[in-house]
Amino acid sequence: MNSLSSLLIVVGLFLVGGIVSFVRQKMPASLIVLLSIGAGLCLVAGVMRLGVWN
What we know:
Blueprint lengths: L2 H22 L4 H22 L4
Helix pairs in contact: 1-2
């Protein structure tokens, strides 16, 4: 696991925590969706960079 993939996974998990916080604060749904997309992209990019499937 190189540093970039682990950084992307950590940022993705941080954004997931932000999603949970925003849902509890009853923030607008569009903001939560945008944060969800960003978190998903970070997590997928981090997992893809691991090269598990190669």
